[in-house]
Q: What sequence folds into this?
C-alpha cells in the first residue's frame, strides 16, 4: 500500500525544518506560560529607598521639611537645600539606601538650575533654619 504525500509534507529542506522547530518551540513556550499562570506567587516587595538613574529625565524632588530628617542636595547655583526624601526619624533615614545607575540629573526647585550630581554628594541631615542654605 502506498500513501501519497503532498509536496508540503515532504518539505524537509532547511526552511521546512526550521519552520517545524519554530512551531514546536512556540507550542512548548505557550504550555510553560499556562503552567506558570496557574500558580500564584508571592506579591512583589516594594523596596524603599532613593534610586537615582542616569537619564535625561529629571529626578523628582519632594518638599523639604524643617525639624525632620531630610535626604537631599545643596544646589550648586543658589546653595539652597532641596530634598529627595523626608522621614520623621533619623534612624529610619540612615537605613534608606541610595543607589545609582550612572550620574542622575536633578533640578533645583528654587532656581531651576539643572545639574548632574554623584550619589555620594547626597546629604542626610536633620533640617533646621540654620542649615537651609549652605555656607562656604
A:
Amino acid at each position: 500500500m502506498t500513501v501519497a504525500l503532498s509536496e508540503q509534507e515532504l518539505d524537509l529542506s532547511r526552511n521546512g525544518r526550521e519552520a517545524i522547530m519554530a512551531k514546536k518551540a512556540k507550542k512548548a513556550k505557550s504550555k510553560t506560560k499556562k503552567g506558570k499562570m496557574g500558580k500564584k506567587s508571592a506579591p512583589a516587595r516594594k523596596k524603599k529607598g532613593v534610586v537615582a538613574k542616569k537619564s535625561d529625565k529629571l529626578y523628582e524632588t519632594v518638599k523639604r521639611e524643617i525639624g525632620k530628617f531630610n535626604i537631599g542636595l545643596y544646589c550648586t547655583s543658589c546653595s539652597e537645600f532641596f530634598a529627595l526624601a523626608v522621614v520623621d526619624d533619623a534612624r529610619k533615614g540612615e537605613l534608606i539606601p541610595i543607589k545609582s545607575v550612572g550620574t542622575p540629573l536633578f533640578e533645583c526647585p528654587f532656581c531651576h538650575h539643572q545639574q548632574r550630581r554623584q550619589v555620594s554628594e547626597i546629604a542626610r541631615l536633620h533640617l533646621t533654619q540654620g542649615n537651609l542654605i549652605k555656607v562656604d
Remarks:
- Residues 48 and 96 are 7 Å apart (CA to CA).
- The longest strand covers residues 81-87.
